Model the fold of this input.
Amino acid sequence: MGKVAFVFPGQGAQQIGMAKDFYEQFESSKEIFAKANACLDIDVEKICFEEEEKINLTEYTQPALLTACVAILQPVLEIMQPDVTAGLSLGEYSALVASEVMDFQDAVKVSRQRGIYMQNEVPVGIGGMSAVLGSTKEIIEEVCEKIDGVSVANYNCPGQIIISGKVEGLEVAREELTKAGAKRVMPLKVSGPFHSPMLVGAGEKLADELKPIDIKEPKYPYVTNVTAEYITKKEDVKELLTKQVSSSVRWQESVEKMIAEGVDTFVEIGPGRTLSNLIKKISREVTVINIEKVEDLEKLKEL
Done:
């Protein structure tokens, strides 16, 4: 076996009951929820296990999903260690915890504020996001360049790119991209134009939150969304997290970078299979497994 990457999903993967079986069966996982509740002004256990509405509101989703992913991570680390970590958008914070760059308590506090800033930066109804299926990066970039307030938010995998920006601009983009041959352009159920220049202000507020946070040298390198490069120095972390809020998420390039560096096994840690499905579309040559239930831990023992 070559190198192993631990990868963590972002907002959209959340679901009621996430990490509940880990919480019930592993003291180390339960402790993560206790730490989250101790340093936040919300009940993370209730949001993850009981709430129907709050789990899908950005300011609650982000700390709840981060807590669930890090709770699932604990027993995984008892079985194996990663060679590199990465996460999609919010998932990068789970990667930072896994790489021991940031303490969990600091990460969850920052994620709570990140969610609030992202939620509040643009009034609801002004901006949004759309998934573009069956088009090329070049065509999508060319169309977005001609439309004020629309840009690429996520380069997910071949044939799936997310655009973000002003609602009226996204409608123009839908028409233009359909004319240019895109199979589908679908509005996403999100509350803002995430990963677009409209969120620069949210990134600046986040930078202030990050100032007092203690950042350590990565125990394992992580791949950043902003540049799709390996990060091995702590000096780069805060600036990249500040930019990440309003920059494109270069997920496809991140996966390709890890494969080029010798990764042949990807372990998705968290609810759902979003990243597993994307990675399979990026490369058929690698092993991809997801860990979202306790029984999934058996997959690790087979590697």
